[in-house]
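Inverse folding, one chain.
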């Protein structure tokens, strides 16, 4: 007998709920169902799906599929929506109080909330068709609210989806009484996708310590850190991870290898064994160079489409989603047999050493946790110059449309902060 029938809500001509930036519920439920199903298979739990592609399946047809398969339990995955964009959190439905359906719903709710950390809205009861027409105990999870801009942003984050899928799978396993066997992929590893865990000020100050002369041919160091924060946020890549990789690849922007500073190539893209100096990829500007690195990291860490025009010349050579974790970026450390660096044993570990060291840097006073707003927008220039973080205050005055004094800039920034 089949253990669980997994149902990805909506699909095909039925998009389900749609978020403020047009993210469709049907696409997220399919991702989560496929991810959770794969995890359950790894635990030896027999599963099947009502759909594995973007096709329309009627509500009654979903119940028919589960009933025909004689599944023991039915689990439907949905993303919530409401009339208020402030609605937040996770809830799970059963058909009625009492019985195995409610027990399944409680197990799913507890595990999912623990995994993704959103507001616990509890277990509820509803006469949904997929709960009413299935012959086996059934539950329907509502992971979060797609009409809430913050939660829609989470649903675009591959690392968040991995956590949600893990929560779903662990909840199902716990309900079945199966002890979860950690396969190692999620344990003590560092996802490349997600929000930066460090402040831009920490990234800058650590680079200054390692460089000694924080100025690049085409870009002041503090501006470069801002570019990493901006470009990484667009693609959902961790800016601190990308920055740590650049520090490793360039020797804290001192270079000395086969890539030249003027190539705006901060991660050695195209720098292959046997290359002579200058033969690696070159980019027209620092921003494009940063964008290429972020895109190359995303190629390894995710199967999601790029948000911006492709500039990475080696993007198409990467097996998408084959190195979701920093520790897997070295070929010999990756269980999938691929990697950024070849042979690369310890390559990801070297990046992690830098990342961990950066985390010990003090955060610029007055900043909020995990802020990616460039540090020069958060404090007056005089303070940053005094601390040695900004070495080129003239650069920032030149960015204005007309001449302006440093004092005036501080006044303007003070108003922005207020």
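Residues assigned per position:
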């Amino acid at each position: 007998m089949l253990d669980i029938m997994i149902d990805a809500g909506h699909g095909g001509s039925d998009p389900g709920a749609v978020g403020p930036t047009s993210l469709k519920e049907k696409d997220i439920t399919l991702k989560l169902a496929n991810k959770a199903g794969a995890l359950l298979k790894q635990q030896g739990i027999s599963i099947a799906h009502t759909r594995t592609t973007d096709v329309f399946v009627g509500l009654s047809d979903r119940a028919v599929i589960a009933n025909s398969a004689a599944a023991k339990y039915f689990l439907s995955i949905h993303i919530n929506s409401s009339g208020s964009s402030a609605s937040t959190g996770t809830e799970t439905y059963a058909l009625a109080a009492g019985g195995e359906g409610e027990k399944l719903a409680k197990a799913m709710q507890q595990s999912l909330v623990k995994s993704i950390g959103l507001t616990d809205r509890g277990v509820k009861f509803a006469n949904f068709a997929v709960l009413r027409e299935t012959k086996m105990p059934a539950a329907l999870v509502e992971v979060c609210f797609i009409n809430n801009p913050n939660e829609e942003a989470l649903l675009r984050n591959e690392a968040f989806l991995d956590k949600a899928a893990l929560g779903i799978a662990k909840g199902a396993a716990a309900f079945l009484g199966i002890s979860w066997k950690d396969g190692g992929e999620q344990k003590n590893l560092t996802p490349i996708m997600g929000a930066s865990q460090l402040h831009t000020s920490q990234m800058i100050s650590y680079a200054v310590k390692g460089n000694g002369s924080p100025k690049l041919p085409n870009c002041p160091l503090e501006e470069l850190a801002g570019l990493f924060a901006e470009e990484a946020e667009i693609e959902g890549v961790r800016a601190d991870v990308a920055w740590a990789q650049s520090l490793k690849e360039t020797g804290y922007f001192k270079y000395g290898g086969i890539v030249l500073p003027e190539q705006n190539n901060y991660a050695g893209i195209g720098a292959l064994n046997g290359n002579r100096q200058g033969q690696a990829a070159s980019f027209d500007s620092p921003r494009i160079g940063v964008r290429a690195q972020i895109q190359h990291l995303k190629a390894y860490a995710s199967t999601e489409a790029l948000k911006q025009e492709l500039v990475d010349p080696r993007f198409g050579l990467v097996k998408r989603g084959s190195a979701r974790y920093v520790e897997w970026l070295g070929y010999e450390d990756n269980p999938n047999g691929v990697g950024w660096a070849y042979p690369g044993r310890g390559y990801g570990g070297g990046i992690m050493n830098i990342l961990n060291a950066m985390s010990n840097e003090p955060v610029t006073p007055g900043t909020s946790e995990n802020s990616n707003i460039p540090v020069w927008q958060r404090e007056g220039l005089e303070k940053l110059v005094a601390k040695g973080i900004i070495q080129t205050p003239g650069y920032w005055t030149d960015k204005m449309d007309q001449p302006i004094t440093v004092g005036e800039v501080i006044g303007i920034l003070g108003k922005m902060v207020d």
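Confidence is low (pLDDT under 50) at residues 365-379, 397-404. Strands lie at 4-8, 47-49, 73-80, 90-94, 120-125, 138-145.
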